[in-house]
Amino acid sequence: MQIDGKPSVLIVDDEEMVITSIRAFLRLDTDFSVHGFTDPVEAARFLEQKPVDVAIADYVMPRMNGIQFLARAKQVQPEATRILLTGYADKQSAIQAINELSLFQYLEKPWENAQLLLVIQNGIERAQLLRQLRDKIAELDAAHSSLKGVQTRLLKAFM
Amino acid sequence: MAHTEQTAEEELARLRAELEEANRKLAESYKLAALGRLIAGIAHEMTTPIGSLRSNNAVALRSLDTLDNVLAVCPAPEIGKAREIVEVLRSLAGVDKIACERIVSVIPGLKAFARVEEAELRRADLNEIVRASVALIQCNCRHRIVVETDLGELPEVECYPQSLHRVFLNVLINACQAIEGQGKITVRSRREGDWVRVSISDTGRGIAPEQASKIFSLGFTTKPVGVGTGLGLAMSKESVERHGGAIDFESTPGVGTTFHIRIPVTQRRTGEKAGV
Which pLDDT score is estimated for B221? Predict the structure, then answer.
């Protein structure tokens, strides 16, 4: 969802340096609004209040790991794209995350800016398409029920 | 009677030797596991800071270009000095970029080495494993040894990739240590029917003919204490044979040595695993 009309990206990593780096590069290369958190619990609270297009999480963090965080994100904002960015080369957790969270992408640190940007852009596009789809379905539902209403009235008029 | 006693004694000695060997292998596997955990920790600790550094470096380089473009059309007379500073910063950032890439290139090798325990066979690209091993060895010896790779097209090989990674690494380390001063290591890979062969040649001192038969024996080493354990090639042989493969070498003293490692493309199934 766009806050101030800009695509919105949330990053949670207990290492401030990762947030600073990614924020700096997105700021120069894009017009995305970036929300960085070193505490996953705080980041989860943010998600309950503000819609985002993409949520990027580190894996090993205190209080809540990246998979737990992204599971929470999925509950609160199912349309937001979920990305795990981890230095922990643990295939088991990656497979678990991809299966359970319908994770969009699993990226290993050290990341490459160009690749990360591509993944974020695709993630934003996906989130926005999903939201449009949801709105269209809602419109269709509304149109369907109003048709039903017309039909009922028509039937009543003729019977 | 004396004869039976002698046989029993021989049997005892043989069993004792077997036990000793088993103990040694066990101790070595503990050591490897501990080393693996240590390396995993180091690799993990490196990824975040180097990820940040590399990202920042890319941003700095691009920003300096942008800044320079702005300064180029700036009319102020002091701009010359500013552009000079940009130039210096750009050259520094260029060096940082190379430094970052060098650190980054080591990480896959460290991560691969760290996975000591490996239960399952996987299909893997042996060239990829060779490259990771070469990258590790190059940080150690790039100032004196040229490593050339000539990697042919290979089918995916069913194997325990980390175990083969350690084999290549062992042979490469030996090759480095065999070279005194400047030299060259050549790594070739080829498909040979249902087999894949990786050959590692060095221009080192070679293996003396009287040592050739002992080279794969556990505990045999010609290296000084603290450098060689006499375990590397013995364990490599075991790993290769576990794959149903073979490791051998040709050597000319004073000219160099080539180790050939042959691995079958598919693993023979035991009854239990049939149909997997």
Answer: 72
The residue with tokens 């890319």 is B58
Q: Is A113 on the interface with B (CB under 8 A)?
A: yes
CB proximity B50 to A under 8 Å:
yes
pLDDT average, residue stretch B68-94: 89
Contacts of B59 in chain A (CB under 8 A): 21, 24-25, 28, 113
Of A24, A25, A88, the CB nearest to B44: A88
Which residues in chain B have Cβ-Cβ distances shorter than 8 Å to A112? Answer: 54
Q: How many CB atoms lie within 10 A of CB A88?
A: 19
Residue count of chain B, please give it.
276
Amino acid identity for residue B132 in this structure: A
**B52 touches A: beta carbon within 8 Å:** yes
Tokens representing B62 are 């691009």
Q: ipTM of this predicted complex?
A: 0.73
Position B272 scores a pLDDT of 39
Q: Which domains does chain B have, with CATH numbers?
A: 115-264 (3.30.565.10)
User: Greatest CA span in chain B, whole angstroms?
Assistant: 109
User: How many other C-beta atoms are found inside a 10 Å radius of the C-beta of residue A60?
Assistant: 15
Q: What is the pLDDT of residues A114-123, one digit of tens each?
A: 999 999 999 9
